[in-house]
Predict the structure of 16S rRNA (Guanine(966)-N(2))-methyltransferase RsmD.
Amino acid sequence: MYLDGLQHFGRDMGSPVRIVSGSARGTRLAGLAGKDIRPTSDRVREAIFSIIYSRLGELTGKSVLDLYAGTGALALEALSRGAQRAVVIDAARQAIRTIEFNARACRLAEGVQILCGTVAEQLARLPEDQPFDLIFFDPPYDKGLVEKTLQLIGDLDVLAAGGLVCAESSARESIPTIVAGQGATLVLADSRIYGATAVHFFTHSDAEDSHE
């Protein structure tokens, strides 16, 4: 089924993706077609947010950044659970249209700023005095983009003090345990494997010292 040129998840795209919890709970999201599209499943998203809560507490009032955002599911899930604002970035026009559609469907459009362009160029344009409490990114697998994106986040110092980075990769991809950026040093705090997907959590180096 197509709505405004957007495809809903059906038999050809796997299980439907829905918002798991919060104000938009149960809202079905439009998807993206393509062999390289692998939306984070509801089960994995729920596991991710359980870990986020254990480290950040409630999301009320927090700011979120979602890179390589795809359908925007992670940012919208965070907003549904009480986050104050989200900035989402993707280079694909189809993804931007899908995120706009999904934000409206969730009645969360007012809290989302949607930017079209590469992660590098759009990160460089963000205000320096507005870091994010929670940063998601799920880049194409096995292309070395996890380390490169962590380096950008550290160089530009876009993670707030006490904040958390959640990065997805293939389970076989090698991930650094520490990334020293020009503005901040990020350290690996936790990693989990869910089938072919791995999820990694990074914090500021001093925050991880205090967490221990």
